[in-house]
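Thread title: Can someone regenerate the structure for this chain?

I was given the following input by a collaborator and told the matching structure tokens would be attached. They weren't. Posting the sequence so someone can regenerate them.
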Amino acid sequence: MSAVLIDAQQQVHALYRDHHGWLHSWLRRKLGDAFEAADLAHDTFLRILSAHDRLGAPDLPELREPRAYLTTVARRVLLNHYRRLSLEQAFLAALAQLPEPQAPSAEERFVILETLHEVDAMLDSLAPKVRMAFLLAQLEGLTYAEIAERLQVSLRTVKRYMADAFEACLMIAL
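Best answer:
Regenerated them for you:
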């Protein structure tokens, strides 16, 4: 393991040691569930460490307000948690509408739900106009020319948007 990674892990460990209890309490108040709060506190620190690893920076930034930083990251984790719950509830509501013989097995439901989460994350990662172009094509069946008119961009721009969206789709397929 490189010295840079070890140093970053030590910095995150110190942040964890000094502020985990406070973050867990903050999340518990927001969620009303100590176990869920513990999971999301853990996810918050994992996100900090993985973001640092992706950036390849030698050190975490000097934090003058570590709790404000943790709160910002934890709010994003919390938002993702609520989005995930919302998606799961919508999926379960759609399943409830299916006749029993057509309902997928527990294993199939798990695979479908995981795929939905991946697609949701992929869509969220797209620029707003790219996402809109992709959804207009896939959900409304609009042609590229119709999308260009709706978004008030050139046909060439729509083709670029769609290429970006399909590339993101390929990344989740790998």
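The helical segments are 3-31, 34-55, 66-96, 106-125, 128-139, 144-151, 155-173.
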